[in-house]
Amino acid sequence: MFNDLRSFIDVLGERKLLRRVRAEVDWDLEVGAIQRRVFDREGPALFFERVRGYEWPLVSGVLGTAERYALALGCEPHKRSIIRKVEAAAAEPLPPVVVESGLCQENVDTGASINVLKFPVPQWHRLDGGRYIGTLGLVITKDPDTGAQNVGIYREQVLDRNRLGLNATQQVGTLWQKWRRQGKAMPVATVIGVDPCTLVASCVQAPLGVDEFGISGALRGSPLPLVRCVSQELEVPATAEIVLEGEIPPDAELVDEGPFGEFTGYYGMVTKSPVINLTAVTFRNHPILQGTLEGKPPNESTMLRSVGHSAGAAARLRRMNLPGLRDVYITDMSCANFMVIVSMDKQFYFGQSRQVIEGVWANMHIAKWVIVVNDDIDIFDRRQVEWALSTRVSPHRDIWVTPHNQVNTNLDPASHPDDRNYPNLRGSRIGIDATVDFKGYEFPPENQALFPP
Q1: Catalytic residue among 245, 262, 294, 300, which?
Q2: Each residue of 262-295: b (16+ CB within 10 Å) or e?
Q3: Regarding beta strands 289-290 and 58-60, do their DSSP bridges make them parallel or antiparallel, or are they unpaired?
Q4: What is the pTM of this model?
Q5: What are the per-10-residue average pLDDT scores of the chain (453 residues)?
Q6: Which residues pair with 167 in a beta bridge?
Q7: Known active-site residue 262
Q8: Strands across the sheet with 399-401, in order?
């Protein structure tokens, strides 16, 4: 178990899975350009020791490969093993514990001392609307009705020294709507630089109301220690590198946030987003800023979302008690969001594959493509999936396309800009039955070349 980001960085270095960049690099585009080349080669994590104009370092790509991901979780470096471990943790969370003090509060800035640009925040892409401190920041909020904390990663643009623009969609958007309706300010804490299990847990698509810190505890094998924020009624990981505390007023101004080079490989449009007014910034001595370059896969955030979203989707499908469900994989090259592949032992009744497809649509708001295959297909092998699509699908019989009335994401470049304004997001979906079951006839035997018995 790794208690913090630093201990994991040390092990990555020992195993030559992290490269320390000792030459000075520029936070303005150069960091992003270097990281892009390393991601394209599926290279090591990068620790930038000298960012121009800053005394503190920046780390990126820590969980960028299955090997590093598996090392963090203590399992085999295969997507199936990783996903199943995360799914098991989500099924049996271990609640966090609140402790009296934490390293994340060794330094406390309030009032005029707050300045988020004291950290080496990059301008990641050429057309970005500004510098983004929130690319791997855990955004922590609380349900005003239940008091349950929620954790997720949402992009955050630096507007000035003590104001951040938050792309408030999905669960954080729902909670923001709740706080607004009650006429109360929503407390927000953005936690940067956490132990790898906590970062993994933050990406699990757990139901609203489930505390992702409990999933972290199950992955770690012990409860995650939290400390109370100094200025907000929230609890944050005690060993985090940096914590940005603030609130969004009920009558929050909506500002232009973006564009931003998103996980799709395209620039996300400028959105009207709420502003977080920072009330305190706390950090460890010699803090490490953690971030990542978004963009088309392969990259770190693709790896994080592929695992976390796959585990979350599998857990929700299993709760539907559909028989024969085997594995669920949200593919990395679909930006770990848009294509879901499900394998089944077999279909037990006519229409079960369509039931699975509709179950995915009901549980995942941006699953555009859903493909169901038999368990003889390794869903983590693109070649096998393509073979099943090519030989087991008759388009008129096995493909379903929805009307243009499905919930979507504002980051989908295939949707018309008029359909990308939160909360009025919409798109369409496609489901494909690539099994051999209930097709009205028996499939011929496969011509596998086998040695005689």
Answers
A1: 262
A2: bbbebbbeebebbbbbbbbbbbbeebbbbbbbbb
A3: parallel
A4: 0.93
A5: 96 98 98 97 97 98 96 94 95 96 98 97 96 96 95 96 92 93 96 98 89 96 98 98 97 90 90 94 98 94 93 90 92 87 91 93 87 96 96 96 88 86 84 95 84 72
A6: none
A7: yes
A8: 325-330, 339-344, 369-374, 430-433, 399-401
